[in-house]
Design a protein that fits this description.
alpha+beta, 2 domains, 12 helices, 10 strands, 16% strand
Length: 378
């Protein structure tokens, strides 16, 4: 069993060490004017897109090769423009509508923006690309798709003072926007989209959430107790995420990432020692949830700042319910796997302590790596 966990850890660490450290998801604002001109401004991590990777998976070595190999960035711009244009698709009542590129970041602009951010924070380079399309008069519904390499794009679409829709558009589920007085999308459709995106932020994307939930489960005396700790964690997560999104506190910046890894290590170590009381084990996930909420806010707050508070609240509720459902799925899966392992005759205490120690080592190791990254040592 111990050998299996060591192999798993060896497979996991390279991914953690080479992944994009401060990735941010794309966002966009679309406005349809009185002449039915659709102006779309997309804010995205340009270097990650140019290397053909989702921002959270883009290896630093590939980004550095793009940015610092003479001539490579400049030669990537035109293929990148065409790739973006090919992946950006619009349908008006089921009929394709052509996009026109108005502006796209140049190599000089990308290098200048990265340079202004400083050596330690040279990625991501979030910049705008602008596109226009002529929407036929009388159109009732628009279907919008983004290039797959952008991942999920948080979209705010407005038509004058008449219609405004906020939606998380993923590559597997294009955005459908009702822009006329015809049948509008139901709240259930919108909520389901937000729930799915929140769920996906944990499974499969949120390995840190999964590790923390595993630690909370391993330190719990029962499945009910583990689910209670998950709920408390989500409440803490929601408070700080909401506070940043609504502008009550500032964006925490990159320093929050080592603290997130620290909470994983500490949570697993506390579960390993098994000395905390049940009341303490409710306070701990609440406090750690506040930290994780700041980390999530660092990625989403910039794209929420232009939206009204009502839309923000709806987005946050949908996301966090989706996140809680995913955390519950992690706990139930962990319980099923533990039950299966114990059926072969292993001692439950030994299995729990081995898992806790493994998660603690991963958490503290990732914390050290992120601190080194912020300090410019790696």
């Amino acid at each position: 069993m111990r050998r299996v966990f060591l192999l798993w850890l060896a497979a996991l660490l390279p991914t953690l060490l080479w992944a994009h450290p401060e990735w941010k998801e794309a966002s966009c604002i679309g406005v349809i004017d009185e002449q039915n001109t659709f102006a779309l401004t997309v804010k995205f991590d340009v270097p990650s897109f140019l290397v053909g990777q989702l921002p959270k998976y883009a290896p630093i070595k590939d980004l550095d090769a793009l940015m610092f190999t003479p001539g490579r960035l400049a030669s990537s711009i035109e293929p990148g423009r065409q790739l973006f244009l090919a992946g950006l698709r619009l349908e008006a009542d089921g009929k394709p509508v052509a996009w026109k590129i108005e502006t796209f970041p140049t190599a000089e602009q990308i290098l200048a923006q990265s340079g202004r951010q400083g050596e330690a924070d040279r990625y991501p380079v979030m910049m705008n690309a602008k596109f226009t399309a002529a929407v036929p008069a009388g159109t009732q519904k628009l279907v919008l798709r983004f290039p797959d390499a952008l991942g999920t794009v948080f979209t705010n679409l407005r038509k004058g003072m008449e219609f405004q829709t906020v939606m998380a558009v993923s590559k597997n589920e294009p955005g459908e926007f009702q822009i006329s007085d015809g049948p509008a999308p139901t709240d259930n459709q919108t909520i389901l989209t937000l729930l799915a995106d929140g769920f996906g932020h944990v499974l499969p994307a949120g390995w840190d959430h999964c590790l923390f939930m595993l630690a909370m489960f391993l330190g719990a005396a029962s499945l009910r107790q583990a689910l209670g700790r998950s709920l408390v964690f989500t409440l803490g997560h929601t408070l700080t995420l909401s506070a940043v999104a609504l502008g009550w506190i500032g964006n925490p910046g990159p320093w929050i990432e080592p603290f997130i890894a620290l909470t994983i290590g500490l949570g697993a170590l506390i579960a390993y020692r098994g000395t905390a009381s049940n009341r303490q084990m409710l306070v701990i996930p609440a406090v750690f949830g506040l930290v994780h909420g700041l980390g999530f806010a660092a990625a989403v707050s910039d794209r929420l700042k232009d939206w009204d508070n009502g839309s923000i609240v709806r987005i946050l509720i949908g996301f966090n319910i989706g996140i809680e459902l995913a955390q519950m799925a992690v706990i139930f899966t962990s319980a099923a796997l533990l039950w299966t392992v114990l059926r072969i005759g292993l001692t439950e205490t030994k299995v729990r302590r081995t898992l806790c120690l493994t998660v603690a080592i991963v958490g503290f190791g990732v914390m050290a790596w992120r601190v080194a990254g912020i300090a410019g040592l790696v």
